[in-house]
Every structure is written in C-alpha cells, then in structure tokens.
Amino acid sequence: MYIILMYDVNEKRTGKMLKLCRKYLNWIQNSVFEGEITEVKLKELKNRAALIMDNETDSLIIFKSRSERWLEKEIVGVERAETDNFL
Amino acid sequence: MYIILMYDVNEKRTGKMLKLCRKYLNWIQNSVFEGEITEVKLKELKNRAALIMDNETDSLIIFKSRSERWLEKEIVGVERAETDNFL
C-alpha cells in the first residue's frame, strides 16, 4: 500500500521521529513522509513511533491508499525532497 | 475530489496560509489540511497561496484522490482536529 504520514510532536521528539520515519518512508516536507510500505512494516513503524511519542499531546496521522497510482501529487513552490538534505 | 494539503512556509507567512487554507479545507494538524474540493476551487486556492508564498523557499504539497473512499485515515496519539481550536 502507499501511505502519506505526518506527525506533530513536541520539539524534543522531532529528531527521533525523523530518524525513525526515514527508515521506512521518503521525507518530503517538514514532518511529512510518503512511500510504499507493507502492513507488517507499517505496524512496526506505528509501534516504534508510539514508544517515542507522548500519546497525550503528540499526533501522528497516516493516510493509506491502495496504490500510488490512486494519488496525484502536486507541488507549489520548492520541492523540498530533492533539494534539502535532512538530519 | 478529495485532497490532503500540507505547507512548509516561513514563520512570517504561516498565519496567512492557515487563514487561507481554512476557507477551503479542514485543518487536521500543524500545517496540514484535508477535504473535498472542486477543480475550480483548488485552482483558486493554489493561486492565492502562491501570492502569499515565497516560491523560492516555501513549499506546498497537494495529494489528490478521486474520492475520500480511496483513502483510509489512521491517527496515533492525539486527534488534533477536534481537540484544538486554532487561530
């Protein structure tokens, strides 16, 4: 399946979340990732994220689509993914 | 069509972008929106966003899906949309 993932976590935890999500998905923008992933790997990512996050204050949203073909992506302004190197 | 929109803009411009996007879509997380929108309204939103943004440094990404039914949304941690009131 193809997913878009975005998190909104306390500043103290952004570094760890970035490092974790980059192991599974492609970074495209500040706190936003996309990519192909299996159910098993997604479950693993969610469990590991939940261990980092404060589930009372932090937020992680995942949009799942059966295939990338069902999503059309458009960028206005700068395409971060290619230009920026991240942590 | 159903879209997920996220922006990554300079702090000076986040207030204006938030105000603009809220007129068309539902705020779900820091700089992230979702919602049903027509081609015409999306074009209008993109044009108005481009006027606010610095297209050399700011980034706006839109994922389009033909219908909300083709997207499954999952939340880990806090669901911001309902709990937070925003600007």
TrEMBL record, chains A, B:
GO molecular function: hydrolase activity; metal ion binding; RNA endonuclease activity
Family: Belongs to the CRISPR-associated endoribonuclease Cas2 protein family.
Keywords for the protein's UniProt record, in alphabetical order: Antiviral defense, Endonuclease, Hydrolase, Magnesium, Metal-binding, Nuclease
Subunit structure of this chain's protein: Homodimer, forms a heterotetramer with a Cas1 homodimer.
Enzyme class (EC, first level): hydrolase
List of residues binding Mg(2+): D8
The protein's Enzyme Commission number: 3.1.-.-
Pfam family, one: CRISPR_Cas2
Cofactor(s) essential for the protein: Mg(2+)
One of the GO biological process terms: maintenance of CRISPR repeat elements
Cross-referenced NCBIfam families: cas2 (TIGR01573)
Protein name: CRISPR-associated endoribonuclease Cas2
Reported function: CRISPR (clustered regularly interspaced short palindromic repeat), is an adaptive immune system that provides protection against mobile genetic elements (viruses, transposable elements and conjugative plasmids). CRISPR clusters contain sequences complementary to antecedent mobile elements and target invading nucleic acids. CRISPR clusters are transcribed and processed into CRISPR RNA (crRNA). Functions as a ssRNA-specific endoribonuclease. Involved in the integration of spacer DNA into the CRISPR cassette.
CDD domains cross-referenced by the UniProt entry: Cas2_I_II_III
Magnesium found in the keyword field: yes
